[in-house]
Structures are given as structure tokens and as C-alpha cells.
Design a protein that fits this description.
Number of strands: 0
Helix content: over 70%
Shape: globular
Structural class: mainly alpha
Strand content: under 5%
Largest sheet: none
Length: about 120
């Protein structure tokens, strides 16, 4: 029955990713993929919180299901590649650097917050 928890989390995470990405990206007149950046960093924070405090069932629901569907390494990679191919190399580098730093930082903050509670 664990797989049902993963499916339930993913059913929320996938549309949430799409809607959040579109809402954020529509507010920015930039080639930088702000929507993907935001969902990935948010997912890192949530996964840090869940990993630091939740039991196994909540980890399956929120960690594997929700965060797995919310975050997107494939879109991050594709958007970074497209930036580089279209001559926006600095944006591509900024996307990689900012995503790595912010994602790791958010995961760290999530774990620390969970342990503090």
C-alpha cells in the first residue's frame, strides 16, 4: 500500500508544479526559468523538512510523491541547455549555480528547522 501514498502525493505535486511554474513565469519578462527554479528550491525545502522530521508514511507521501512530482531535474536540464544554445550562456550558468546553491541551502534549512521542532 506504500505505492498509494506515492501516487497520492504525485497527484498533487505534478499539477502544482505546472500551475506554479506558469504563474511565476508569466510574471517575469526574462529568459531565466524562474518557475522551474522556484518549484525546485521549494521542493528541496519541503524534502529537507520531511526528511528531518516525518515518519516513513509521510516521507512516502510528501517526500517521494509530492516532491518527486513537484521538482524537475529534466526541465531544469532542458531549460539550461536551451539557454546555452540560444546565446544566453550567462543565464545558463546562473541557473546552474543558483539552483545548486539555493537547492542545497533550502534542503539544509529544512532539515535544521525540522530538527529544531
Amino acid at each position: 500500500m506504500n505505492w498509494l501514498l506515492v501516487v497520492a502525493g504525485a497527484m498533487v505535486g505534478a499539477p502544482l508544479r505546472y500551475l506554479t511554474d506558469r504563474a511565476i513565469q508569466s510574471r517575469h519578462d526574462s529568459v531565466f526559468p524562474w518557475g522551474t527554479f522556484a518549484v525546485n528550491v521549494t521542493g528541496c525545502l519541503v524534502l529537507g523538512l520531511v526528511s528531518g522530521a516525518a515518519g516513513p508514511h509521510l516521507q512516502l507521501l510528501l517526500g517521494t510523491g509530492l516532491c518527486g512530482a513537484l521538482t524537475t531535474y529534466s526541465t531544469f536540464s532542458y531549460e539550461t541547455l536551451r539557454l546555452a544554445e540560444t546565446g544566453a550562456g550567462l543565464y545558463a550558468l546562473a541557473n546552474v549555480g543558483a539552483s545548486l546553491i539555493a537547492g542545497l541551502g533550502a534542503a539544509y534549512v529544512g532539515v535544521e528547522l525540522a530538527q529544531a521542532v
